[in-house]
Amino acid sequence: MTANLILETNQQSFSNNFCNSLVGALAQATGLRWLVEAAPDTKSASDGSQPVFIQLTLDGSLRGEFVLQFHGAEAAMLASKVLRQPADEFGIEQTEALLKLVRSGMDEFCATLARQYGTFTFEASSVSELPSDRQNVAQIAAADDESNHLSILMYLNPALVEALTLHSQSGSRVVEPGSAVKFVPAEAPSEQKNLNLVMDVELNVTLRFGQRQLTLREVLELTSGSVVELDRQVDEPVELLLDGKVIARGEAVVIDGNYGLRVTEVSQRLSTSILC
């Protein structure tokens, strides 16, 4: 495998994994079914609106940066769906909603790539322009059930491209014709191995709509028809708890006569919550 082919394969795999993670976050945040689709031509996809840029800085076992370029109208559409309110313009509130969406996708993205690249963290921020080096670019696209389309350009900086290539070269060898090489799979991170041992263990999770401290007298005075006021407003998210720890937040829904939760925010990586 030549160096150029390794480089292209790494970038394609990286962008595909990010696209899948972002589409998953879109589905959770909007309650709609999003699917990855073929990326349209860059020129024909432009809608003439002011683009929006989000920069992701990676640190840890994988280091570098990449910038996401959203069409302005599509960024406003996403923010509108996340905020569940019309968005005639893209302002501070819409920027924060888009950042929240990207961070949610990045949480899943980091977990997905941990086995291949090891553990790394990220910082997401809004920037005003593209990086000066625009050689390494990928285009990803998706659409939802309401015929909304999304096309994003993804610019990888040279440091990230180099890091992806170095990881690939350290985990594989080029096989010369006629040679016999036994490949040994890369060692999975200890966290991933620990998770694999307990994947089928059943866990009890709890929905918390709110809480309230009562005195012993108030508890003893409870009767049928008593009303206990909780500390949470009706428009605040419901919490999902595992062993007393909040692992996600979302909206209460009814499914076939049973209460359920539509997750809108994952507070931290779930593997960290379970293993700690």
How is this structure best described in words?
It is a single chain. The longest helix has 28 residues, at 3-30. A hairpin with a 2-residue loop joins strand 8 and strand 9 (245-255). The strands form two sheets. Strands 1-5-6-3-2-4 form a six-stranded antiparallel beta sheet. The protein has two domains: 3-171, CheC-like (Chemotaxis protein chec, 3-Layer(aba) Sandwich), CATH 3.40.1550.10; 195-275, SpoA-like (Surface presentation of antigens (SPOA)). Helix content is 37%, strand content 26%. The chain has 276 residues and is an alpha+beta fold. Helix 1 (3-30) crosses helix 5 (158-171) and helix 3 (72-83) packs across helix 4 (92-117).
Anisotropy-based shape:
globular
Tell me the number of strands: 10
Return the CATH class of the largest domain.
Answer: Alpha Beta
Q: Overall pLDDT, averaged?
A: 78
Helical segment tally? 8
The CATH superfamily of the largest domain is known as CheC-like
Fill in the CATH topology of the largest domain.
Chemotaxis protein chec
Beta content comes to: 25-35%
Structural class: alpha+beta
The strands making up the biggest β-sheet line up spatially as 1-5-6-3-2-4
| Ends distance | 41 Å
Rg: 23 Å
Helix content: 25-40%
- Number of structural units classed as domains: 2
Order of helices and strands: HEHEEHHEEEHHEHEEEH
The biggest beta sheet, please? 6 strands, antiparallel
Write the layout of secondary structure elements.
Blueprint: H1 3-30, E1 34-36, H2 42-45, E2 52-60, E3 64-70, H3 72-83, H4 92-117, E4 120-127, E5 137-144, E6 149-156, H5 158-171, H6 190-197, E7 205-208, H7 216-220, E8 238-242, E9 245-255, E10 258-266, H8 270-275
Antiparallel strand pairs: 1-5, 2-3, 2-4, 3-6, 5-6, 7-8, 8-9, 9-10
